[in-house]
Structure prediction request, 471 residues.
Amino acid sequence: MFIRRCYLRLSIALFALATIAGPARADDPFLVKPYVQIGEKPTSSQMQVLWHAADADEDWQLERQAKDGSWKREAAPTMRRVAVSGIAPHRVYQATLTDLTAGEKVAYRVLAAGKPLFSGETQGLKTANQSSRYVIMGDCGAGSNEQKPIARRIFESKPDMVVITGDIVYSSGRISEYRDRFWPIYNADTPSDRGAPLIRSIPFVGAPGNHDTESRDLDRFPDALAYFLYWNQPRNGPAGRVGGPFFPTLKGSETNQKAFLSAAGSAFPNMANFSFDVANVHWTILDSNSYTDWTSDELKNWVAADLAAAKSADWRFVAFHHPGFNSSKAHFEQQHMRLLAPIFEAGKVDVVYAGHVHNYQRSFPLTFVPDAQGKVAPRGRLVAGKWNLDKTFDGKSDTTPNGVIYLVTGAGGQKLYNPEQQDDRPSWQEFTTKFISKVHSFTLTDIDAKTATIRQLTADGTELDRIVITK
Ligand SMILES: [Fe+2]
Prediction:
């Protein structure tokens, strides 16, 4: 009994020490090594570099290598302090790489007190006349044995961007979970079956999933909502107000709420819905979580206006978490994003990528008219309506879809849903033409002018599905 009590006290003391002191060491001052983000106003000539370090003053600098090999110092980094309960206070630094050329590689390094501590390489976002490659996947940050080899395969496929359709980390979107299940896997030093050096070179864009932003009780999880602390993405969505249709009231003590708000800065709550252009693609990222009221005209009008304004893009892709068109028994009733189908059709969206359901599904190109548009509660409700399916499109001999193609690509790492349905076609909804639920996978989308090639790949590179779309 005495020994057990001593052991317990020692464990508590060690835990407290680790929590207060943090893991920073003089020879490795990074809590999270540098990673790239598209930032609030993405352009081809700039890329944001972020890194996390201990809560101590340090003379950080970012440098970019010019074409003549010399190192050019960028403007001094800005810093946000993250001081939430249960996690050692730390700092999120951000500096901007400038003078980049679209699609051209550039070396960068991060220095402290004049000493280079990290070297990386990224590239300027591509412009409209360049081909581009995207990886899209969701439900990935589980820390599972399936997540890690997929990271390696993504690295080997050399995308220009990775888009995560939500559930970035499990189970509650916490800082501690990012440290276990995200950074070591997507920002590893070397490629292996444990992860890959992806996000230090390739910008990730994230849509919020339920596991990222639904844990809002900051008394239970003071380090939750890390999505708003660590991602730097556009803020051009509808101006949200806490408690309005775009984001709910935070829960928890005033102290914990203040700590979160101070750390999040302008990212909260406006970062959840946004759009940007890269190459000849317009991407619209939406928040499909239960607190978001997709019957709100304000929200729907923003999506319609956003798509209408994207006239110069050849392609329009939308990404969010909860799929409107899903044949899995899992989450079948969460159909609320079907309400946006008429807006996607009017806005000439080509493909909608979702996650939440842990498998892969592709719909026929379809149009949909909801029966009760505007009267459906946002979550947990069936959205009845009429769909029109283009069954002549096969992505091979007929490559011109009549309607929007809806993909579920939620097989990025978390335990798969409904493997038994893969071979049970009668269990699929009429709108589903491909359903793969026995293996983890990710989507690779190549855009070459007016041709899109969309493939679904496993960690060993097996091609599960392939379609070509032309314009
Ligand atoms: Fe989910």
In short: The chain has two domains: 2-123, 132-470.
